[in-house]
From TrEMBL:
Protein name: Uncharacterized protein
Species per Swiss-Prot/TrEMBL record: Pedobacter psychroterrae
Taxonomic classification: Bacteria, Pseudomonadati, Bacteroidota, Sphingobacteriia, Sphingobacteriales
Organism superkingdom: Bacteria
Length: 212
């Protein structure tokens, strides 16, 4: 074999070896795509009925009802005005991790609202009107027999999620109070009797048992 032929054979062999080596070093498709250390959270979109804004804890939250009439609580950085109560909203939210202040900075999972806008549509649950609240109190046998006036003394505000309803009778120059009720409209509609001296509540059944 001539020197020229030996040179050609050596060159071809070297090229083949380098090709095999390159194939071995080529990364797979999954290896070639860099993985983000902080992947973006998945955004969910739902239609929800706004019920209440809660601003008394470390994290603000909004309470909604979904189409199945289940309560949905979403952490938020924005307040929804009470005038939108019972309106439908298009809500975008994602799963988040929050820090519990004062508890060794322990972490917990929560759903955080990222965007919301009011939309047209019929509420999933019919709003409970103030007239219904007053009428339900008037219809209580104890009120019918002992009071001639039923008025709303306080409305939900400043973290209170109930109506305070006062009942009693008017004299010529005085008002004799019969009792006061707290009426909750969510998560369930509920009437309780306020024991003002102790700032505690009794169910209607407990109250009636005490008076019989």
């Amino acid at each position: 074999m001539t020197r020229f032929n030996l040179f050609i054979a050596s060159a071809l062999l070297l090229a083949a070896c380098n090709g095999d080596k390159a194939k071995q070093q080529t990364p797979t498709g999954s290896q070639a795509i860099p993985v983000s250390p902080n992947p973006k959270p998945q955004i969910h979109t739902d239609t929800l009925q706004f019920i209440h804004f809660e601003g008394n804890f470390d994290y603000w939250s909004c309470i909604f009802l979904n189409s199945s009439k289940d309560t949905v609580t979403l952490v938020t950085d924005s307040m929804i005005n009470e005038k939108f109560k019972n309106r439908l909203f298009e809500v975008k939210w994602f799963k988040d991790t929050l820090v519990q202040a004062g508890d060794n900075d322990s972490k917990f999972a929560a759903n955080r609202m990222s965007h919301f806008r009011p939309i047209k549509g019929k509420p999933f649950v019919a709003p409970i009107t103030e007239e219904k609240i007053l009428q339900d109190i008037r219809d209580l046998p104890e009120v019918q027999s002992g009071a001639d006036q039923v008025v709303i003394a306080e409305r939900p505000a400043d973290g209170k999620n109930y109506y305070l309803v006062e009942t009693g009778t008017h004299g010529e120059d005085n008002f004799s109070r019969l009792c006061m009720f707290r009426v909750y409209t969510y998560p369930i509609y509920k009437i309780t009797v306020l024991v003002a001296a102790e700032n505690t509540e009794l169910s209607l059944e407990q109250w009636r048992n005490l008076n019989h």
